[in-house]
Amino acid sequence: MVLILMSSALAVLCYLAFTAWLPSNREQLQGYRAAGPCPAPATAQVQEDCLSTGQVTVVKTEETGTRTHSYKATLKNEGSWRGIVLFKDQGPLSERLEPGDQVTATLWRRHIVGLSKDGVQQNTTDVPRDELQMKAALGTLAALLAAQMLVFGAVRLVRPRSAEPFTWDPYGARILVTIFGACFGVGFLALMVGVPWWFVPPAVPVVCAAVMLYPMRRRPAVLWPEDRHKAA
Questions:
Q1: Is the pLDDT of residue 231 over 60?
Q2: Distance (Å, rounded) from C-alpha 190 to C-alpha 125?
Q3: Partners of 92 in the beta sheet?
Q4: How far is residue 1 CA from its own chain's centroid?
Q5: Which of 11, 96, 167, 215 has the highest count of CB atoms within 10 angstroms of its CB?
Q6: No. of H helices and E strands in the chain?
């Protein structure tokens, strides 16, 4: 029963991934790519969908993370505003920022998406990124895990004393590892190559099936005693 409940939760996550999370990120990415400099003067509503700039002062900077280095900068303006921006990695600007520096902040939809100083510019983590392939891979991961748990859970309900082969050993663990490997592998490859995100959901099950069936094709045939007698 627990597996079926987990399957239902994962199915909901899959539904939200493809109906809310991925479309929202796609809309943000398209809106950011289409945004241009804000006209002067511009109303607050117009400034939501265009790129505005303003001068801010660096209060302090610090490096965060242990394995992957990321950077955080605390900023303030001439008024009472004070905020924090994050940089995903060590870039051309984040490593040069010092307390007291005057920098130009680029804003889009009330978020600072980039800082620049003396012609050197760097995006913050708030800039929309073209990583829809990995989001599609995570949605597909939730769908496949939901399917596996539903099947294994249903078999356990129908046949609680003889659920084989729908158990953790030998097929459950192998299917789980295959699903994770295929989802992240296909998603990362699609992201690196630049193929559309909708390539990922149908490609992942194909890869999973190929990985699961490959060892079965190489497995030597088992001869029962009567077959061995006939072969002799």
A1: no
A2: 22
A3: none
A4: 29
A5: 11
A6: 7, 6
Structural contact between residues 3 and 150, judged by C-beta atoms closer than 8 angstroms: yes
- Give CA angle at 191 (186, 193), nearest 5°: 95
Tokens for 181? Answer: 């490997």
Give me the pLDDT at residue 230, please.
Answer: 47
More confident residue, 119 or 215: 119
- Rounded to 10 degrees, the C-alpha dihedral 164/166/170/171 comes to 150
Residues 126 and 148: beta-carbon distance below 8 Å: no
The angle formed by the CA atoms of residues 53, 58 and 64, to the nearest 5 degrees, is 110
Show the tokens assigned to 116. Answer: 């620049």
15-24 confidence digits (pLDDT tens): 999 999 999 9
d(CA 69, CA 87): 9
Q: Is the pLDDT score of 221 beyond 60?
A: no
The β-bridge partners of 63 are 71
Give the chain's end-to-end CA distance (angstroms, integer). Answer: 50
Placement of tokens 């599609």 in the chain:
136
CA distance 165 to 160: 12
DSSP symbols for 64-133: E-SSS-EEEEEEE-SSS-EEEEEESS--TTTTT--TT-EEEEEEETTEEEEEEETTEEEE-TTS----HH
